[in-house]
Amino acid sequence: MDMFEKSILIFGCGSILWGDDGFGPAVIECLNQNYHLPDDVLALDVGTSIRDILFDLILSEKKPRQLIIIDAVGYPDRQPGEVFEIPVEGIPETKVSDFSLHQFPTVNMLQEIKDHGGMQVKIIVGQTEFIPEEVAPGLTPTMQRAVTAACEWIMAVIKEGR
Description:
Helices cover about 35% and strands about 20% of the residues. The longest helix has 20 residues, at about 140-160. Helix 1 (about 25-35) packs across helix 4 and helix 2 runs parallel beside helix 3 (about 105-115). Helix 1 links the parallel strand 1 and strand 2 (about 40-45). By secondary structure, the chain is an alpha/beta fold.
């Protein structure tokens, strides 16, 4: 797969069916449509299947030098639409949807990748404004604006890593 030939992987996590939880996929779509990513960078919407992909990365002989994960979070002390970075250890214990990046084995795999896989891991998140109780696709306007901020942050991370 092309993924194993790239030096930087960007994974957008979340479900587009649950309002602001679709932040990660929206960032990936924006990156791929509106930014020129270098040839050695791949941005993928992984939806809610990051665990399988991380497992493949751990087992792969060839690994990227950097992994950037984009996701939505719900911290009580952050403003809706705020984009910020969290460490692997800082993934919240509660997530905004039934997909939980923090649950075993995902955090363990990320820690393994970070500590023993030779990859730098960055987790860039957007603070949600609204997660519906029933299926309701589409980001709030606040999170739509945050998509551009996240894309600019990612492009700066890519440039910094060169």
